[in-house]
Amino acid sequence: MKTHISALTAALAVVSLLSCGHKEKASTQEESPSVDVAEAFTDSVVLHKTYPGYLSAESQATVVAQVSGRLLSRSFQPGAYVRKGQTLFSIDPTLYRDEVSRAEAALTSAISARDYAASHYAAVKKALEADAVSKMEVLNAESALQQAESDIKTCRAALSTARTNLGYCTVTAPISGYISDSEVKPGNYVNGAAQPVSLATIYDNSTLSAIFEIEDSQYEEMTGEISGKEAPLYRSIPLHFRDSLPHAYTADLIYEAPSVNRQTGTVVLKGRVGNIDNELKDGMYVTVSLPYGENPRAVLIKDAAIGTDQRGSYVYVVNDSNRVVYTPIVTGEVFRDSLRVVDSGVKPGDRYVTKALLTVRDGETVTPVLKK
Fold first, then answer.
1. 60: helix, strand or coil
2. What pLDDT is attached to residue 290?
3. Got the DSSP string for 68-134?
4. Mean pLDDT, rounded, for 239-247
5. Angle at 45 between CA 353 and CA 274, to 5 degrees
6. Which of 95, 104, 191, 307 qualifies as a FRET site for 292, CA 20 to 30 Å off?
7. Residue 65, SS3?
8. Least confident of 20-34, 281-295, 319-333
9. For the residues 329-351, what does the mean pLDDT come to?
């Protein structure tokens, strides 16, 4: 009987130990937090080098006063869109109307003088046939007629100038675009007859140029034996701005300076930028991401998974033992808006934490949940 009791007691002890072991193991698994992870992978990535630049409207014009007088009115709102030929300013036309009237009177007088000279010439030619006048009188009459016809041309030119100046009293838009504030306000006197006076500037921002400079050595590396503007890489060049804009913008390379600046050792390039939504303005600073090559096996991870501290960029890698490892990395450029190229620190297939970066700790054991 005692033997059976001892055996039963030993069996119960073994069951108890096994049960405790399972509980401890389950408890350990329960204590390991679940974290979302992703695997680093490779893809073919076009490499870019960034250059600072600025935008310039491909078409802009200065609105000027070309006659003198008091500025009577302004017919636009600063910053508004104006169309070519639209009236913008009005200058007092009184003096120029008088000039037109005088020129018209002078032309009428010149025409009358020409008609008289023509009649006189015809008369003396007829008189010459009857030997009633000398040949010298005929020549004088012919000369007077020619002078009268010349006077008409002079008067017509003066009338045209007077009418042109009168037309300048109404200042119109030379191109369509967005207009700046006027530099001279109504009521002020402008002396445009002496020298054209700037009143405002119109910018046609429908298309702009992204202007930037690159090193001549980089230019040679990028273009090689193919002209840059013919290579597929030099279309749809990504552009970035200081502040985030609602839309993304790219440029097509349209101009390469024919010479290298000897002082800076750079080549000026221009890219055409469409501005359909009118978000871009003349003079805006821009960063041009110019492609220069391709990495067929670039290592990529999610940009949001990258942290930054005093030592630089890092990610939390989960090793084969499911332990979190603080891993410094060297990052490259952004790819497809949400991915980041990693130049060193992470290998293809490495698992890295994508969420809860602030809660995981270096060396902590976790339960990784793989997310695509």
1. strand
2. 85
3. EEEEEEE-S-TT-EE-TT-EEEEE--HHHHHHHHHHHHHHHHHHHHHHHHHHHHHHHHHHHHTTSS-
4. 87
5. 110
6. 307
7. strand
8. 20-34
9. 91
CA angle 19, 25, 29 (to 5 degrees): 140
CA 235 to CA 254: how far, in whole Å? 9
Cα angle for residues 240, 242, 248 (degrees, 5° grid): 35
DSSP state of 196: P
**Residue 127, φ and ψ in degrees, nearest 5:** -65, -30
Distance CA 48, CA 291 (A): 4
Helix axes 94-129, 135-168, angle to 10 degrees: 160
The amino acid at 278: N
Angle at 199 between CA 196 and CA 200, to 5 degrees: 125
Give SS3 for 220: helix
Task: Report how far residue 293's alpha carbon sits from residue 289's, in angstroms, rounded to the nearest whole number.
Answer: 12
pLDDT at 30: 53
Q: What is the pLDDT of residues 195-240, one digit of tens each?
A: 999 999 999 999 999 999 998 877 766 665 344 444 445 788 889 9
Structure tokens at 229: 């503007």
pTM assigned to the model? 0.66
Q: How far is CA 192 from the centre of its chain?
A: 33
Backbone angles phi, psi at 122, to 5 degrees: -65, -40
Q: What is the CA radius of gyration of the chain?
A: 43
Distance (Å, rounded) from C-alpha 198 to C-alpha 64? 4
Q: Catalogue the E-assigned strands of the chain.
A: 34-39, 41-65, 68-74, 81-82, 87-91, 170-172, 177-179, 189-191, 197-215, 237-240, 249-256, 266-274, 285-302, 307-309, 312-318, 324-328, 330-335, 339-344, 351-353, 367-370
> How far is C-alpha 314 from the chain's CA centre?
35
pLDDT in tens, 82-123: 999 999 999 999 999 999 999 999 999 999 999 999 999 999
Token pair listed for 46 = 């076009």
Task: Supply 55's token pair.
Answer: 């935008």
